[in-house]
Amino acid sequence: MSLLIKNVRPWGKDSVDILIEDGFIARLEPNIQISNTPDSTIDAKNQLALPGLINAHAHLDKNLLGLPWHKNQVPGPRIRDFVDFERKFRQQNQISAETQSAKQIEASIKLGITHIRTHIDIDTEAGLKHFEGVMANKERYKHQMKLQTVAFPQSGMLIRPGTVELLEEAVKQGADCIGGLDPSIIDRDPVTHLDTIFDIADRHQVELDIHLHEPGELGAFSVELIIERCKTLSLQGKVTISHCFCLGQIDEGHLNSLIDGLLENQIAVMSLGSGTGNFPPLKKLYEAGVTLCSGTDGIRDTWGPHNSPDMLNRVQMLAYRSGFRKDEDIEMLLDIVTHSSAKVMKDADYGLSVGKQADLVILPGDTPAHAVVEQGNQRLVIKKGVIVADRAQLII
To answer: Do 250 and 310 share a domain, yes or no?
Structure first.
């Protein structure tokens, strides 16, 4: 199949044409002329073209999209309170991970998101039920969405005997990554917690994506333990630390030391600007060369009514919380949710250049920063060279 897109501005630059053949960008230049008539031609009318947006940190199995409004009634402020309430709510209301994850995937496709990495709750009460539901949708939407899965011990791991075995079984059944969670605060044994998940990753040759909410020096201690194990097991480029609030809560000298360790071991950091406290200094990390990514986290779930599936909305939130007003800083954040996040997801075919897979979104805007602020739904979404959504309507 061939698709010719006329008069489009990649990343807001000069207008060109894009010829897509068999799912890849074959030519990208002004006024393309070809001898054979393409299967389809689109006049983009000088709109922007961005590479497909990437949600590198989602919880597809948790959302309550399309269900009656949920009034937040979590009884306490601790992560443990939210986790326990959520697990009980999902059981009592028989929330289907397959049904709910499909809703968020379809909402994401409409918004120009072509890649998602999702964490999936695995515990001794639900077993692999949530994982199996999301995996069914990984197959169902494989032509419209590149989906990576993380086997995630949301309820704790060592404190719930049997969870380790379930996590490893999920990896055997196709999970792309093994997850971890606050090894000091939740499991109260950071050495065993990290040794366990690194061992699973090493034996099964999968990546790690570790939730780290631990603050200040406690969180920095966990980062140091992660760096040590990454180096010892030669897992460079295979570890992501998600949230990692501590990087924004320690002194400059300690931060610089951790940055050196992250760079040496090619450890990525995921940040989405959530919460009310300090979060990683994204510009400092970006300019230092640390691989960064972002995502939506959980949206419309029992944790809270906030967050949107739209990654342009996430970029604006990050810019607001970071105090960024200049176009170049907003575009830096946009680069994080596109090219940098693609690096985290190991997609070597990603990008708006000849030879890359044709995953892109065409949308209004004078500049990329303008598109971030407008967040309109007039988006044409192309995945593997095929139109999958147009103006908030799915075409699948």
So the answer is: yes
CATH number at residue 360: 2.30.40.10
d(CA 9, CA 25) in angstroms, rounded, equals 15
Give the position of tokens 């326990």: 84
> Would you place residue 14 in the very low, low, confident or very high pLDDT band (cuts 50, 70, 90)?
very high
What is the DSSP code (8-state) at residue 294? -
Answer for the pair 189, 176: CB distance below 8 angstroms, yes or no: no
b vs e for 315-328, b when ≥16 Cβ sit within 10 Å of the residue's Cβ?
A: bbbbbebbebeeee
Tens of pLDDT, residues 195-219: 999 999 999 999 999 999 999 999 9
Domain span at residue 312 reads: 53-344
Please give the mean pLDDT across all residues of the chain.
96
Tell me the C-alpha distance between 316 and 237, whole Å: 28
Instruction: Please tell me the pTM assigned to this model.
Output: 0.97
DSSP H helical ranges for the chain: 79-92, 97-110, 129-140, 163-172, 190-204, 216-232, 252-264, 282-288, 311-322, 327-335, 341-344, 368-374
Whole-angstrom Cα distance, residue 318 to residue 240?
Answer: 19
The predicted model gives 178-196 an average pLDDT of 97
Distances (CA, A) of 343 to 87, 92, 150, 166, 254: 33, 39, 17, 28, 26
SS3 of residue 20 by DSSP: strand
Number of neighbouring beta carbons within 10 Å of residue 72: 11
CA–CA separation, 281 vs 205, rounded Å? 31
Same structural domain, 42 and 177: no
Dist. CA 298–CA 302, nearest whole Å: 9
Sequence-separated contacts (24+) of 77-84 with Cβ below 8 Å: 79/182, 79/185, 79/186, 79/213, 80/186, 82/302, 82/303, 83/154, 83/155, 83/156, 84/155
Q: Where are the alpha helices (DSSP H) in 184-310?
A: 190-204, 216-232, 252-264, 282-288
The number of C-alpha atoms within 13 Å of 295 and in the hemisphere containing its C-beta is 26
- Dist. CA 123–CA 157, nearest whole Å: 8
